Amino acid sequence: MNAKLAKAWSSREITRKGAAKVAEIVRVGTEILLAEGFSSVTKRRVAKRLGIAHGNVGYYFPTRESLWHAVVYYELSELYEKYPVDLDANTDDPQSCFDEYLVGYFDECESGKSRSFYAHVEAFAEINSVVAGWRDEIYERILQGFTDRIRPLCVGVDDEQIKLRALTVMLLFEGLEAVSAFRPDLVKRGSEFRQQLIDQANTIVRGE
């Protein structure tokens, strides 16, 4: 995590040394989240694992929610760096741009870490309105990614229909999280299932 991100996630104005501390706190918080869930991500637990005073964590993250927020967006930034979702939608080859976006979805599903992260967010969102808001923000971003890449493939199609097709494709691919959990072979690179799902998504985009 660079200093700019660290400053964005902490409520404090921090030095370079402080940014390194924030990065360490958030990294450990993410490890706890993935292993045990949101309820275990506390300032006290993080401090104990790092061998520092509870107040040191509280200095940068005065509330539990501020720590959770940093942890969620740290993990998202890791996923986005590994599987870029912000590909340029204005490419000269919009079909390849769309297909590559879908391939990124498959690649994410191959990662047990990714599946675990989204599962924790989904589960805790049901009982915590703050996390529910972050979940909705994540999915709105994903939907926008689909919409931006579908629009150049739908010349002459009204915007409402484009959004509906994007939602349908998103629905189709959201099921990959469940499928990859018990049939991981289906989402591996080179699998026939991958190509079949990509073909199905393109059929939806064409309105067929």
What are the low-pLDDT stretches, counting only 5+ consecutive residues below 50? none
Average the pLDDT over all residues and give the rounded result: 87
Biggest sheet: strands, sense, closure? none
How much helicity do the residues have?
A: over 70%
Count of DSSP helices? 11
Count of the separate structural domains: 2
The counted number of beta strands is 0
Radius of gyration over all CA atoms, rounded: 19 Å
Structural class: mainly alpha
The proportion of strand residues reads under 5%
- The helix-strand sequence is HHHHHHHHHHH
Features:
208 residues, mainly alpha, Arc Repressor Mutant, subunit A, 2 domains
Report on this structure.
The chain has 208 residues and is mainly α. It has 2 domains: 3-71, Orthogonal Bundle (Arc Repressor Mutant, subunit A); 83-205. The chain contains 11 helices and no strands. It has helices at residues 3-9, 16-36, 43-50, 54-60, 64-82, 94-110, 112-125, 129-150, 159-174, 176-182, 192-205. Helix 9 (159-174) packs antiparallel against helix 11. The longest helix is centred in the C-terminal third of the chain and has 22 residues, at 129-150. It is elongated. The mean pLDDT is 87.
Secondary structure elements and pairings:
Blueprint: H1 3-9, H2 16-36, H3 43-50, H4 54-60, H5 64-82, H6 94-110, H7 112-125, H8 129-150, H9 159-174, H10 176-182, H11 192-205
Helix pairs in contact: 1-2, 2-3, 2-5, 3-4, 6-8, 6-10, 7-8, 8-9, 9-11
